Amino acid sequence: MKQKVAVKVSVSHPPVEKVQADAVIFDIDNVLVDTRQSYLEAIRNTVELYLTHGEVPFFSRSTGGKFPSLLTPGDVNQFKLLGGFNDDWDCCYGLLIYLLSLPVKNRTLEALKKSVNIEKFAKSVKDRPLRVSGITALFGRPTTVTVEKVARIFQEVYLGKDIFPRVTMNRMRYWKKRGLIHREKLVFKRPILERLKHHGLKLGIATGRSLYEASHALKHFGIADLFDAMTTMDDVKKEEREKKESLRKPHPFSLIKTAHALGAKKKFLYVGDLPDDILATNRAKSFLSIRSVAFSMLAANPFQTLKGLEAAKPDFFIKTPADLCHLLKI
């Protein structure tokens, strides 16, 4: 029988019965690692650079102004809650399609900012997850916006001048600074993860990161040795090429693949921060014994995020990493 902890009830008052699990699968971004100053900021910077860079930019911006200034962290968070934008390149692409659909009086960033109302747009979206396919159905697919250029700008911003050229063998074109990757912080500290391992739990990862970026984070924070299996965006894209369909969250592919590597007959928990994570877990229940744990501690807008997570119907909510141990009574 499923147990559900209400949003307003802290898991420090755990369920009467012990939650049974043999393995815990984690998302990385804003779960294992705080990416509010890296990935989230990379989205804001990528969108703004795309719109203002080049000989004939979409929009001009005032010199000496704050950068980025067009989108707030809350805007990005609310857009992601529309669903299907777990991949940050997809999120940037979707935001650009939305922004270029807005009516503006003149081609300045300041004028565009006045037209931005993602809260109003979100209320108009009835079918979720929206995904890239949904937003292009609404606004079309302009040839002036390409995923390739989005990806190039995003990777330069995220990896920076010290990593991007070395990893990609390309020169910097849009970004001349250190990468935002260096701003990340570990959330689930090693002692917590060791505690889970000490009690016999297998640990896995199902992430939208590339293999390089996932491995970099785990090694940088000294926790790579604690994980028994991992599925990254590299695995997802390889399978997508073979099956010719989208397998990104909320599709359960990455969870199922990691679970099979850990032992498919085990009882799993999946810890995620977005509705897409919860929806992916719910869909995986047809193939696995798995329950979802919503972790919204790092949300840019807690109220909006909790509302979105509630709608996705997670099995449990936790507020802190320690709450996961309380949930498992270890």
Entry summary:
With 330 residues, the chain is an alpha/beta fold. The chain is built from 15 helices and eight strands.
CATH topology call of the largest domain: Rossmann fold
Total helical elements = 15
CATH secondary-structure class of the largest domain: Alpha Beta
What percent of residues are in strands?
5-15%
The coarse silhouette is: globular
What profile does the largest beta sheet have?
A: 6 strands, parallel
**How many beta-strand runs?**
8
What is the H/E order? EEHHHHHHHHEHEHEHHEHEHEH
Could you tell me how far the N terminus lies from the C terminus, measured between alpha carbons in angstroms? 21 Å
Radius of gyration: 20 Å
Whole-number mean pLDDT = 93
Q: Main sheet: which strands, in order across?
A: 5-4-1-6-7-8
